[in-house]
Amino acid sequence: MVSDDPTGFKLEIAQVYAFVNEFGYDGGDPEVVTADELEKRGYKVPRSKIADHIKRSNWSHLAVA
What we know:
The protein has about 60 residues and is mostly helical. It has one domain. About 45% of the residues lie in helices and about 0% in strands. The protein has 3 helices and no strands. It has helices at about 10-25, 35-40, 50-55. The radius of gyration is 16 Å and the shape is flat.
């Protein structure tokens, strides 16, 4: 871990970004079925905005004293 990132969160985000940038969101797996594809097949896929998820999640474990 880096001294200005004691939780490792910055590194985690950087690694996710690098993966998606190189391989795509689904890792290039042609078997991945997206939410849109499921909905076209008649399944209801509940979705929410990331902002709503952030608001209702407990982030206290990331707080640095």
